[in-house]
Design a protein that fits this description.
Elements (H helix, E strand, L loop, with lengths): L8 E7 L19 H16 L6 E4 L3 H11 L7 E4 L2 H4 L2 H14 L4 E5 L3 H10 L6 H5 L8 E6 L11 E7 L5
Parallel strand pairs: 1-4, 2-3, 2-4
Antiparallel strand pairs: 1-5, 5-6
Helix pairs in contact: 1-2, 4-5
Length: 177
């Protein structure tokens, strides 16, 4: 629940879809989605559109598999969000994800989608949900799935990225029935 008088906004955390194993001599950064990953991303994009989850802003890792995931998802958006690519989503830990959410909340408290990597997605989700009577394990088990899409409501634009300031809204997974 939102705090009285506090603005809230939606946070969508998306783990990139399944990627091919790297070829010998290739960089991890350049790994592209495999066929399974493209199918996963299309499935989640359809489910996202059906629930009318629409980001106003997207911050995406520039890794090839994240960019491809974004390209598939954005085909189902009703309107074009502002998109920014952030290298630190590939190179840094979950504290950077939380910092980006907090900065966004202070500057433009509107719905935000972050497309990134594990284990940072799980760790970010844990941090936002802990002490709010919600457990990531209860919601998704012990594995944030590839192409997983976690929708949260930030309970405060003053402290959106602190423990216990996220409320679970929904989970989309390519493996749900």
């Amino acid at each position: 629940m939102s705090e009285p008088g506090a603005a809230s906004f939606n946070i969508y955390l998306v783990r990139h879809a399944n990627a091919a194993w790297p070829q010998p001599g290739a960089r991890d950064f350049d790994r592209k989605l495999d066929e399974r990953g493209r199918t996963e991303a299309h499935t989640v994009a359809d489910r996202m559109a059906a629930r009318t989850y629409q980001p106003d802003y997207v911050i995406c890792s520039p890794a090839a598999r994240c960019v491809e995931t974004l390209d598939i998802l954005k085909d189902r958006f009703d309107r074009a969000p502002d998109i920014r690519f952030e290298e630190r989503l590939y190179t840094d830990g979950h504290d950077t994800y939380l910092e980006l959410i907090a900065t966004h909340a202070r500057n433009a408290p509107a719905s935000l989608m972050i497309i990134g990597h594990n284990p940072m997605m799980e760790e970010t989700s844990h941090a936002l949900l802990q002490h709010a009577g919600q457990s990531l394990e209860d919601i998704i088990g012990y594995d944030f799935p590839t192409a997983g899409f976690l929708a949260l409501e930030s309970c405060s634009t003053d402290r959106p990225a602190t423990a216990g300031h996220g409320r679970f809204m929904g989970l989309l997974s390519p493996r749900e029935r």
